[in-house]
Amino acid sequence: MKKAIIILVLFLFVTSICWTDLGEELYWAVYDNYLTEAEELLEEGADVNLQEDDGDTALIWATSRNHIETVEILKNAGAEK
User: Fold this and answer.
1) CA 38 to chain CA centroid, nearest Å
2) Rounded (10°) CA dihedral 9, 12, 15, 17
């Protein structure tokens, strides 16, 4: 039983790192206006509404940098703010 709990905890930890990494990768792809990469990350399950420590999201960055196509991609993927 103890092994099963340890394995479950490790699995959840590794899974959370992977999802966070996708969201952070999306954030930087949007920042640099890499449309194809952003679309691929969204298809892989990146969190379109992930907020950085300062509260910024990929949509905020795309909007502030006038990346109009990227804004549309993010909104179509469900970006809220």
Assistant:
1) 9
2) -70
Q: Is residue 8 part of a domain?
A: no
CA distances from 18 to 14, 41, 42 (A): 6, 12, 13
Range of the domain at 55: 18-76
pLDDT in tens, 21-62: 788 899 889 989 999 999 999 999 999 998 888 889 999 999
- What's the whole-model pTM score? 0.71
Number of H helices and E strands in the chain, helices first, is 4, 0
